[in-house]
Each structure stands twice: as structure tokens, then as C-alpha cells.
Amino acid sequence: WQTLSRVAVKGAEFDSRERQPHSKCLKGTRLVLLNHMYGLLDSREKSRFIWLHGTAGIGKSAVAFTVAERMRNLKITKQTTVERRLAGSLFFSREHTQRCTTDHFFATLAYQLAVNFPSIQEEVEIVIHRNPSLLHPDKSLHDQMKALFLQPLQTL
């Protein structure tokens, strides 16, 4: 767990102090896009992965922050006390060396996932104990995604 904690990129989370002031959608703006994304995320029929892309300055970070903030404030179920709908977030940045590459992308998400969902922390630790090379930046992103992220998500 300590090794994963050291490798996880700090300051990458949507609400990090490193990213202040946080860009956020102004109330009443981008409603069509936000409602579309909320609809996808609220659907329990399928897993959803949303790839938000566009040219620089178009407002991707503001939209992503707004969506992440909403998901963090929603519980998984009414009975849940700890676990929220936000599994994790990582905001890339050209200005920060650790956040301008995918070197620790899945390690960072796995760490956040285990913090946000304590019930899978032990499984993440076991996966890393069995194969510590998963945390190396040169390890295949596919292998990292499968072992550090998808496997724990399937447990949830």
C-alpha cells in the first residue's frame, strides 16, 4: 500500500489544491452536455467511459471538474456511508512533469479507487504484491489497466 501511495501522482485529483482556482461550469451553462454526461453516468444498464476531448481552452477541465464534483457528492446507494460515485480522477497538465504522461495513470487511479472504496484495498494490495512491476512506468498500460483498475472494479 505504501509503495502504491508513493507512486500515485499527488495533485492530479479534480479538487486538488495544486489546480486552484478550480475551473467549473457556471450555473446554467453547458446544460445539454452536462445532462447528457449525467444521463450516461446514471445509467446502470452498462458501464460507461466518457472521453472528453477538444481543442485547448474549450472548457474540458471545467466540464470534467463539474461532473467529478457531482459524482463525489452522490452516494452509491442510500445505505452507503463512505463510498461515493466518484471512483477517481486524474487531470493531466503540461506544467507538471508527473501529470503530462501516462507513466502513473493507472497506479494513481487504483490508489484513488482503493481510498474511495475501502472494500477493495486489500485486493489492490495483493495484485501489487504478486506483481510489483505493475507500478513501473514502462509496464504495459493494458496490463496496468487490467490488473490495477478493471479487476478491482469488477470486484465492486
The structural class is: mainly alpha
- Radius of gyration, whole Å: 16 Å
Strand content: under 5%
Taking all residues together, what is the mean pLDDT? 87
Stretches where pLDDT is under 50 for at least 5 consecutive residues are none
Structural shape: globular
What is the helix tally? 6
Record field, number of beta strands: 0
Number of domains: 1
Distance between the termini: 19 Å
Provide structural commentary.
This protein is an all-alpha fold. The chain has one domain (1-155). It is built from 6 helices and no strands. The mean pLDDT is 87.
Descriptive keywords:
single chain; 156 residues; mainly alpha; 44% helix; globular
Question: In short, what is this structure?
Answer:
The chain has 156 residues and is an all-alpha fold.
Map the helices and strands.
Layout: H1 2-7, H2 31-42, H3 60-72, H4 105-116, H5 121-130, H6 141-155
